[in-house]
Fold these 2 entries.
Entry 1:
Amino acid sequence: MSVMMPKPSEAILSRRQVIVDALRAIVPGEGVVDIAQEMAVFESDGLTAYRQLPLVVVLPQTVRQVAEVLTYCHREEIPVVPRGSGTSLSGGALPLQDGVLLVLSKFNRVLEIDYDNRCAVVQPGVTNLGITHAVAHRGFYYAPDPSSQIACSIGGNVAENSGGVHCLKYGLTANNVLGIEFVTIEGEIVRLGGKHLDAEGYDILGLMTGSEGLLGVVTEVTVRILQKPETARAVLIGFPTSEQAGACVAAIIAKGIIPGGMEMMDRPAIHAAEDFVQAGYPTDVEALLIVELDGPGAEVDHLLAEVEAIGNANGAVTCRVSQSEEERAAFWAGRKAAFPAVGRISPDYYCMDGTIPRKELPKVLAGMKALSDKYGLRVANVFHAGDGNLHPLILYDANNEGELRRAEEFGNDILRLCVEVGGVLTGEHGVGVEKRDLMPEMFGEDDLKHQQRVKCAFDDKHLLNPGKVFPELHRCAELGRMHVHKGQVAFPDLPRF
């Protein structure tokens, strides 16, 4: 494994059977898995290049069991890695050899649907698409829709602040979560927010959303549900170059048009998806935009004409508007199947996740072409063009010596390029282990220390998901020290309490 994880504690490993027995007393029956062969299914998440077995797997069924497991692990100083469906693409749920893998997949019930308040209360193991299925018969849906929505769980969505093709208009998970219940590492059960619009006091709910399992274990989520729009139509716009497609994206947003979704695919991704799904994509173009407009019918018709005109002004060579709901669904089926479809043209691929200002799309796409030549590896681009969230897929063969390492270096250079043009390291996949060592490219030492101080406030022993996000951990006592220079503290005129 090329990514270094914390060295396992020999003291914990030597107590393994005692730990397993103690956990079985908390979660009886089949809730504890400790046989290596049975734990193999949990050895990695969606970033399958990195894998290792956990110390033990625990699958609780109640909040009380979660609290008791965390209380025990805190007392015994045993690391804990929370895990949902395991679809994370950043190694966020990668187990630790000396840690408990706490799997929330049995928390899979929709607890309440409140149409009057436009929200649903669900357990973290409910799939993203499962929420929409639960409310579809009343004409409602849950807006964030990552491509893995058929499998990914809402708890994992909260941990990574997941998005999807419709996040441009309707927001990421953070914009659609109203409240959560979570358990601290000490076993305290905490509620934040609820069915009301905003949580009271400090925005701890915003802090927890996207915290990647470093601050607590989510056991319940209250999400916003929306009524389906009156009309939704999508248009496929093909371009002779990716740069022209990128310029079209910027022009649409500059016009003041906010599509329900706006996605882009380049030639390798177009061909892979079309061969896999037969969505009706043009295969003689270098780049394809899928732009969806939704709302009242008259408004949608007007905006479609505007988008077509912008596409033509930016060199579009083909334009096709969906004429039925089935055709619109087919357009999106190809996009949502793009990741697995790319598996048909390469034995392995490495999915990246950086976000850039939209106006920089042409520059970054050109930069990725140059990096592809440098590393001798192909890249297929599938991404949320509307908000600049890139998902380049680096194609490689792990059986060829050195290709995984080249793919990693290629990906690192893509992320450095994103930061260089004013972007960020991640849009929705999280940092995990994949981008952990690139954090100094974006944050200074003081920035990282302040982030770790937040971690210390929730988890003073660094037991929750250690080895993720922070390239270098500091002891909480060390971070809390006051620096004295030549006998003078900083700002000596300020009163101290």
Entry 2:
Amino acid sequence: MTRHNFFNGTFLLRLAVAIILVVHGAGGMFNNGINDFGNLFLNQVGFAPFGVFLVWVIKLSHLVCAVCLLFEKYVKWLGWLTIFILIMGIVLVHYKEGWFVVGGGRNGVEFNFLLIMALLTIMFPQGLNKAQ
């Protein structure tokens, strides 16, 4: 990989999204968040007995996606997977809270929406009309 490719026009956005995915992914691994979300939420809304397993898969996929974003490997495949996870987060958790994460509400969809748009921009840096 040449220096030009690594530090291209999407580098800062890739770096920002990668940091967000690492912090969000790793956070639950060290504060019992994975077990809590799996057992106390996902298992309760119909994913039992797989709630904890699903959260581990999601969090590990965030970490893999972050590394791949930095090195521009498997970006579209992992981007679509992460977008699917973010949409499911909207459907299961955030939609009922409204739009705002803070300010006009709490825990809303706006941050997931922004991450989805950022991932699409990384996946299609030339725009959707020139998607390959």
